[in-house]
Amino acid sequence: MIFLPLTAQAGWRFAEWGMSKDELIAASNGEAGPHYEQNRESWGEYPAAKSEAHEMGHKFEAWYYIDPYDGLYAIRLVPQGLYWCIDIRDRAMQRWGYRDLRHEDGDPVWKMPETNNRVSIIGFRGCTVKLEPLDPEKIARGTR
Fold first, then answer.
1. 60 φ, ψ to 5°?
2. I need a labelling partner for 53 at 20 to 30 A (CA). Which of 2, 74, 105, 119 fits?
3. Beta carbons of 96 and 110 less than 8 angstroms apart
4. pTM exceeding 0.70
């Protein structure tokens, strides 16, 4: 699992780094579904699947970014409805603590080698919580 220390009611705990889109949707037991059709001619990154999640007292959509060769490489929790960015940042500070906290470009970042996770809050540009593997090579070596 990606994040064991968090509560089980969030709708993204079934995901594992390196999963294909089909594996992720199957593991979700109906919680996740396709997000956008992948179009090789379009520019930019588009999530392949999505689900609903309830985290830190807020409703989010979990967006799953999946590479066709390397599988799941990022999850973004995108807030839905009314929210205050500062509340999301404060709750993240309470959830993940201050011990492993760093700041990159003014945004809080937690690096947790014991779970191979890097978590960041993408500032006041949307308050998105971004999760990605800390060491992508562990996935390539089959140690997801």
1. -130, 160
2. 105
3. yes
4. yes
